[in-house]
Amino acid sequence: MAGFLDRAKExxxxxxxxxxxxxxxxxxxxxxxELLKKLGAAxxxxxxxxxxxxxxxxxxxxxxxxxxxxxxxxxxGA
Length: 78
Prior knowledge:
- The chain has three helices and no strands.
- With 78 residues, it is mainly alpha-helical.
């Protein structure tokens, strides 16, 4: 009986770990999409004359930092 409980506990911990990884992946994808949206808005404002080049550069820098940390997988879904 103890072996069964140990296996059940291991499976539950594995499922919990997988779920946590999935949630973190979704959160990273959402954050990447938001950074991409901010970059687009900053670029559009700059091109229209109502935004600053520094805002576009800051948005690009933030997006590149996110990609360096989490990869660019979110770009394929955009």
